[in-house]
Structures are given as C-alpha cells and as structure tokens.
Amino acid sequence: MKQQRIAETFGFLRAWLKNPLRVAAVAPSGRALANLITCEISRETGPVIELGPGTGAFTRALIARGVREEDLTLIEFGSEFAAALHFHYPRARTLWMDAALRTIDLFDGRLAGAVVSGLPVLSMPPRKVIAILTGAFRKMRPDGAFYQFTYGPRCPVPLRLLDHLGLQAERIGGTLVNLPPAAVYRIRRTHPNPFHLDRVSLRQRELAG
C-alpha cells in the first residue's frame, strides 16, 4: 500500500506538470480530507458517483466506509488516472470521460445517493460548473448530496449559480493538515423535487457568460 501511494504521488506530479489547470493541486488529497469529504456517506447511501477521483484517495475512503466497490462509478478525464483506477478498483465502473454526465446510465437505472467531487471547480468557467451540477443532480435521488472540497475561503460555486439552479451549500468542515488546507461543502437541492434543467435558459446563458 505504501509503495502504491508513493507511485500515485509521482503519477500525480507528472499529471500536474503536464496540465496544472486541470489537476489544480501539487499533491494528492490527504487522508484527513478524504475522511472529511466522505464522513456522511456509508453503505446505506447507495450508489456513489465520484467526479475527478485522480489517484483514488476519496475512493479508498468511500470503500473504507462500507460503500461497495460495485456501487461506485468513477468519472475521470485524465487517461493516466483512469487506467490506474480501473486497475486498482476493477469492480467499480471507471469511465474515461468529461464530468458533465448528460444522458449516460451509470447504475442500470438506479439513482445515486451522493456525488463526491475532486474537480477544480474554482478554475472552471460558470458554464462548465452549471453543466456538471446539472448532470450530477439528474443522476441523484431527490435527497442526494453533492460534496465538493475547496482550497478557498468560501464555497467554490458562486451563490448566484446555486440560487439559479435551486441549490444550497453548507460547509461541513475543514482540515489544516491537508496540503494545502481545504474545506468541504455539501450541496443539496433547496426543495426535494426532481431536478429539471432540460434546456439552457436565457438567464442561464447570462449567468454563464
């Protein structure tokens, strides 16, 4: 396990040097952050979608909390990370694709109970963030939650976007021992109604512009 994590760290650094804006950190997420972002998730949560799992720090924490490997879908845009995730977690479904989930069926018709995001949303344009949140909430039950970490002082999804999408964010904790220090936010629907954003409205274009 120690050798695996050393190899993951070097792989992470290579990916960061290749594309620092996509990776957006100089080291894999630490154990404290992984424990924090998964602290409300258990086997009873049901299927879990992980966006941008990278080296699998959050994946390991989810499995340690009882989430079945078969109930994990790992969405990774980096081909080097996707190949390693498929090797280490063969019973999970690893997809090499963009994080805007759109119409793909992830769990044979079942809805996820949570989404755990390792995506660098602070460096993404609003239009991209809207697409990611829209796709994620379409794949979750009405009571599902989207967990996002950030290195910044506030929620990385602007309040105007949350309001427009009918979402609300709550900070569930922070950790100073991660490199760099990080906080985690839980994002949920304002009202537990089905999430419908089948068309991009004029107002949404203005927000994303």
Structure write-up:
The chain has 209 residues and is of the alpha/beta class. It is built from eight helices and seven strands. It has a seven-stranded mixed sheet.
Feature tags:
single chain, 209 residues, alpha/beta, seven-stranded mixed β-sheet, 35% helix, globular
In short:
The protein has 209 residues and is α/β, with parallel strands linked by helices. Helix content is 35%, strand content 22%. The protein has helices at 2-18, 20-23, 31-37, 57-64, 79-88, 126-138, 159-165, 202-208, and strands spanning 48-51, 72-76, 93-96, 112-117, 140-150, 167-175, 182-189.
Main β-sheet: number of strands, strand sense, barrel status?
7 strands, mixed
User: How many angstroms does the end-to-end distance come to?
Assistant: 45 Å
User: Measured on Cα atoms, how large is the radius of gyration?
Assistant: 16 Å
Shape: globular
- Order of strands in the sheet with most strands: 3-2-1-4-5-7-6
Mean pLDDT: 85
The number of helical segments is 8
Q: Indicate the percent of residues in helices.
A: 25-40%
Taken in chain order, the helices and strands follow as HHHEHEHEEHEHEEH
Please count the beta strands (DSSP E, at least 2 residues each). 7
Secondary-structure content class: alpha/beta
Uncertain residue segments = 6-10, 195-202
Beta-strand fraction estimate: 15-25%
**In oligomeric terms, what are we looking at?**
single chain
Write the layout of secondary structure elements.
Blueprint lengths: L1 H17 L1 H4 L7 H7 L10 E4 L5 H8 L7 E5 L2 H10 L4 E4 L15 E6 L8 H13 L1 E11 L8 H7 L1 E9 L6 E8 L12 H7 L1
Helix pairs in contact: 3-4, 6-8
